[in-house]
Amino acid sequence: MRVLLVEDEVRLAGVVKDGLAAEGFVVDVVSDGITGLWAATENSYDAIVLDIMLPGLNGYDVLKQIRSRKIWTPVLMLTAKDGEYDQTDAFDLGADDYLTKPFSFLILMARLRALVRRGAPERPVLVTVGTLVLDPARRVVARGGVPVALTAREYGLLLYLMRHAGDVVSKAQILDNVWDSAYEGGDNIVEVYVGYLRRKLDAPFNLNTLRTVRGLGYRLDPDIH
Predict the structure, then answer these.
(1) Which residues pair with 169 in a beta bridge?
(2) Which residues have CB under 8 Å from 60's CB, separation 6+?
(3) Nearest to residue 25, comparing CAs of 102, 97, 88, 115?
(4) Hey, is 58 helix, strand or coil?
(5) Which stretches of 80-170 are DSSP H helices?
(6) Does domain 2-118 have CATH number 3.90.180.10?
(7) What is 127-220's CATH number, 1.10.472.10, 2.60.120.10, 1.10.645.10, 1.10.10.10?
(8) Model-wide pTM > 0.85
(9) Where are the beta strands (DSSP E) in 124-172?
(10) Whether pLDDT at 181 is above 50
(11) Which of 19, 21, 67, 195 is deepest in the core (most CB within 10 A)?
């Protein structure tokens, strides 16, 4: 398995490279965004570990250009920042995971293995549940052809629910997959954002597709049977 590590902290890059190599990974290390973009474009990788604060071209711009070139290699963002704005920005641009410094190498290893197992099939053109349509490439949502404006967090929550349409997902599952691991608040935040989605996606269309399954979690149903 081959990993691209884009990290300008020499000591950290060396530790991560040695640790991954000991686990059987082949690791290419570059220390700036411009070279990182070139490497990600020219070579094939199973995963990319990408720092945000980089010389030459920051991680956000590298990620944005990678995705604009239809390169769907799983990307784990690595940064010292831990604010929600940074997390949602990374996911909004197409990141697959997010880890803040300092971090446990074991956690990094587990996250990378999960990304590699998931692989990088070409992203679907559209995700559809009934009349609800999400376009991952353009990051737009519509219900019955009517555009619906969502925040980055609402979009991430909806995408997760749509990919598990018909299944009951718990608050814990949602937090694990939509919120960053650094989030330390209560799980009531999930209920708040589900409410936001209902007001935008169900109420205006006189629908009730985002259901609460008491004691278990939430389920997104299609409105066409």
Answers:
(1) 218
(2) 52, 89, 90, 93
(3) 115
(4) coil
(5) 84-93, 105-118, 152-163
(6) no
(7) 1.10.10.10
(8) no
(9) 127-129, 132-135, 140-143, 146-148
(10) yes
(11) 67
